[in-house]
Amino acid sequence: MSQQEQPRRPQEPVKYGDVFEVSGELADKTIAPEDANMMQAAETRVFGHTQKGGTAAVMQSAATANKRGGFVRQGEATDLAAEQGVTVAQTDVPGARVTTEFVGGQVVGQYVEPRPVTTTAATDAETLGLDLQSAITIGEALEAAVQTAGNKAVDQSDAAAIQAAEVRASGTNVIAPGGIAASAQSAANHNATVDLDEDKIKLVDVLAGATGKLQADKAATRQDAEGVVSAELRNNPNLTTHPGGVAASVTAAARLNEKADI
């Protein structure tokens, strides 16, 4: 290998905030080799292998660069990963399985796998008065966000996304008093005045049972998803959407509905 081809020693460590949409203490943590190993093991337990180009692969590349740069040692783990864990969780929603990856309690990756409706599931759904052959609604997408980002403190971007979702579900621009959009805005206003995360109102507090709280509901479409994504982006200082959050869930629902051609 020529001198020009040799990898250059990195000048700064690769941190979680450099490659993932995370915040707080985790964003400033250097990705360590044992963090990557834990994510590889978690992905292998769930998928049977690591995802090509997925979260574990990104973490492994970052950890290798950090080790080469002398910023971490082999076998070293960040305190947040060691104390709060590196996990992969799966949630079933109508027509799909959502896999979400966490480091230190924050979402670092998400995969949506379309799943056919089985005969047994259809029978159970009929017993419960549900129709799994119908499309995933906006309300169901909001409830799915509880599973993937329920512990996230509600901020202005969440409130805007929830309002956009409610407006599209109801077909009217009138925000229902006491509805999920009004509750989300109230939560965001409250959280802006609170310092401790444990004292803040979380998405699960606002979106649990969202389907029953909406005055009307409808199948999620690409246009609905674009509206919700736009609202979340406009109200986020970093111009990003939260992994597994409101916009991501509505987008996943719309994509699955398109694939199912419902």
What can you tell me about this protein's structure?
The longest helix is centred in the first third of the chain and has 15 residues, at 33-47. The protein has helices at residues 16-19, 24-27, 33-47, 55-68, 79-84, 119-128, 138-149, 156-170, 180-191, 203-207, 210-213, 222-234, 246-260; strands spanning 86-93, 96-103, 106-114. The protein starts with 15 loop residues before the first helix and ends with a helix. It has 13 helices and three strands. Strand 1 and strand 2 form a beta hairpin. A three-stranded antiparallel sheet has the order 1-2-3, with helices on both faces. It is mainly α. The model is unreliable at 1-5 and 118-132 (pLDDT under 50).
Give the secondary structure arrangement, pairings included.
Layout: H1 16-19, H2 24-27, H3 33-47, H4 55-68, H5 79-84, E1 86-93, E2 96-103, E3 106-114, H6 119-128, H7 138-149, H8 156-170, H9 180-191, H10 203-207, H11 210-213, H12 222-234, H13 246-260
Antiparallel strand pairs: 1-2, 2-3
Helix pairs in contact: 3-4, 7-13, 8-9, 8-12, 12-13
Outline of the structure:
The chain has 262 residues and is mainly α.
